[in-house]
Amino acid sequence: MARPETPAPQAAEAASPSPLREIVRRLARWETGLVLLFIGTLIFGANASPAFTQSTTFFFVGLNIGEVAIMALPLALIIITGEIDLSVASILGLSGVVLAELAGHGWPIQAAIVMALVVGAACGLFNGFLITRLGLPSLAVTIGTLALFRGIAQIILPNDTLAGLPASLTKIGVVPIPNTQIPYSIAIFGFLAIVVAIALHATPLGRSIFAIGLNREAAFFSGVRVKRIQLWLFVLSGVLSALAGVLFTFRFASARYDSGVGLELDVITACLLGGISIFGGRGTIFGVVLALAILGSLRQALTLENVSPQEQSIVVGGLLLLSVIVPSAGGVYRRTRAQVQAFRQRRRARGAPAQAPAAGEAAP
Amino acid sequence: MTSVGTAEAAAPPVERARSHRIAEALLRFRELGILVALALVIGATAIKNPRFIEISSLQEILAGASIIGLLAIGQTLVIVTRNVDLSVGSVVGISAYATGVVFVHNQNISPVIVFLVAALIGLGWGIINGAIVTIARVPSLVVTLATLYIIRGIDATWAGGNQINASDLPDWFNKIGFGTFAGLPYLGIILIVATAMAWYWMRSFRTGRDFYAIGSNPEAARLAGIPVERRIFTTFALSGMIAGVAGALWLSYFGSVDAIAGTGYEFVVISAVVVGGVAIFGGSGSVIGAVLGAILLQTIASALPSANISSNWELAVQGGLLVGAIALDRLVSVRVAPALRTRRSGRGKA
From CA A273, how far away is CA A75, in angstroms rounded? Predict the structure, then answer.
């Protein structure tokens, strides 16, 4: 389902250059819109509550969006290659449960963290194997593992909350890096974002990732190791989701099997709002970072306005819809115009005496 | 691909007939396979716990499977056209709550109006999904993922912490969920009738065949003059409407509704459909298979406690079944593909 079906005719239609249109198109980058939207969100937040303009806001926004941000990076790469991973939030939940369970059984916390990351990698490998080696559609596989991984977490830790992690470590989930306002999760995200951005935009690997998304067959025949790259992207997604799960567990100093249920909405919204094309082959990490900033400040502003999490999900879902509908507006406009023109031509043809009356109805 | 096809077509007729038979058997395999799996689950559970095969227990399983089964019919329509509708669980929730609110306001309301309200609520959401998918040409996965959360958010905002209980509902309505006719629960009868209608429609009507054509090859379907967008729109509208009606039935079955009704149903429904042999790539599968898949999942869910396995295993088992089913489909289709090609080319010559 994530495979492109329409872009080919669209690209053909778009090839009508004119100098003025070219300038407008350069200025009308998706990221420009995001910057404006971000400024708008900040103004909205400042109007919503005086607490929003305090210096601690950055810290709380970062704290709340940190895990989503870390999971959004590998997902952005996966979507660029034309696939999807819906299971990220379940891997987050499972790795948190593994961490707390092992720590509860007396494992040293460092070993438990490593184990949680290994479990995440295994989950990613499982997804990647089914998708790349068996050739199954990523949508179906990750809907299945969304339930499977969450279900395994539920088997390990059925109903209760596991607490009792060492406070010396869990406090990194709730305090900033000393002498700054930066939460640890955001520092980790910042580092990862730079690495991923360089890898995507400035290395042959990154070009390969775009090439896979634009035309899988062509990429394969130009020597890109399509399956291997995709497999490793899913493993990366698993590891980073597990890392997010560790941070999530630290933040709440406890683990539950249903930790982070529904977070995939935020992660996918961040990617698509950030301008990653759902058809693959297009997008920037900078856009995703901007989208995360928008999403985080918007949620923070809404929380300060006493908007419940459920009502917030209406807003986030709306953002997700908008971020896929807006890019397709051009296509809708072109198709509608083409239809109107075809209709006019048909009417003209019908007006001409020699034409058969039902000519317009028949299929070409 | 084509070279393989012609090579197979040139195979001697005897061999072609044999592979033809293998293909037929494998295609029929799915519905039969589910029935066998169903018999195994019921048999194994009955050995451990004989009360599992008492009439009342089986009635309960059928009634419980009915709502998932109805949703599976709608989902089959959508998936056959190579789309997916993730919003059904939320539509069930909001429609169930709306039905409850209708009864809280007026207990003596006519059944026709109640079900009409439920159907229209579902239809409305289905139309929204379908319109966005077909007009903006956005992948249905993203659209329905967004509406999944939007509808749930609206439902949660509307319902708040309220709960509507069986005492707020009229007797006739509660009876739909519990009553039986000639040994069959009403819900089961509704499911069977709906399945039969949908099966016949998809098998024998032009619109129904169009869905398969679209799912097999959207471009070819378009070139063949099938109104692809209109058909896809129809599947979403129908899926929504069925989910709306299923919401009302959900309320009659469970007797109470709050803001989280139907959460996670989309996943169970998709599992049921895929386990039932509807290809997630679109283009093949039957409503009967999907409904059997729903019955199988419900039977497993009921069997777990009867066999002294914690119900905490339910989610993992369903997820595993979904992944296993698509993997199995893939392996079978890799095996069957050459045989199918022979069959097609053989038919073309005849």
Answer: 13
Three-state secondary structure call for residue B205:
coil
**What ipTM was reported for this prediction?**
0.85
Domain that holds residue A132: 30-341
B94 contacts: CB under 8 Å, gap ≥ 6: B121, B125, B151, B152, B154, B155, B158, B247
Inter-chain touch B323–A329, beta carbons under 8 Å: no
Interface check for B220 against chain A (CB to CB < 8 A): the answer is no
Entry pTM: 0.86
Q: Residues A107-157: pLDDT tens digits? A: 888 999 999 999 999 999 999 999 999 999 999 999 999 999 999 999 998
Rounded CA gap, B218 and B223, in Å?
9
- Residues in chain B with pLDDT < 50? 1-12, 348-350
Q: Provide the number of structural domains found in chain A.
A: 1
For an interface test with B, which of A269, A312, A324 has the most B Cβ atoms less than 10 Å from its Cβ? A324
Question: B182: buried, middle or exposed (CB in 10 Å: 19+, 13-18, 0-12)?
Answer: exposed
Where residue A250 sits, what CATH number does that domain have? 1.10.3470
Are the beta carbons of B323 and A130 separated by less than 8 Å?
yes
Tell me the pLDDT tens digit for each residue of B292-302.
999 999 999 88
Q: CB contact, 8 Å: B319 with chain A?
A: yes
CB contact under 8 A, A139 and B84: yes
Task: Classify residue A286: in a domain, yes or no.
Answer: yes
Give yes or no for B227 touching A (CB within 8 A): no
Q: In chain B, whose CA is at the least distance from the CA of A87?
A: B319
Which pLDDT value is given to residue B7? 41
**In this predicted model, what pLDDT tens digit does every residue of A186-245 receive, in sequence order?**
999 999 999 999 999 999 999 999 999 999 999 999 999 999 999 999 999 999 999 999
* B323 → closest Cβ in A141, A313, A317: A141
Give the pLDDT confidence of B148-157 residue by residue, as tens digits: 999 999 999 9
Asked, for residue A18, whether it belongs to a domain, the answer is no
pLDDT tens-digit profile of B205-232? Answer: 999 999 999 999 999 999 999 999 999 9
Is there a domain that residue A352 lies in?
A: no
**C-alpha angle B131-B134-B139 in degrees, rounded to nearest 5:** 110
Placement of tokens 């409305």 in the chain: B124
Task: Check if the beta carbon of residue A302 is closer than 8 Å to that of residue A65.
Answer: no
Contact present, B46 and B52 (Cβ < 8 Å): yes
Whether A90 is covered by a domain: the verdict is yes
Residues of A whose CB is below 8 A from B152: 310, 313
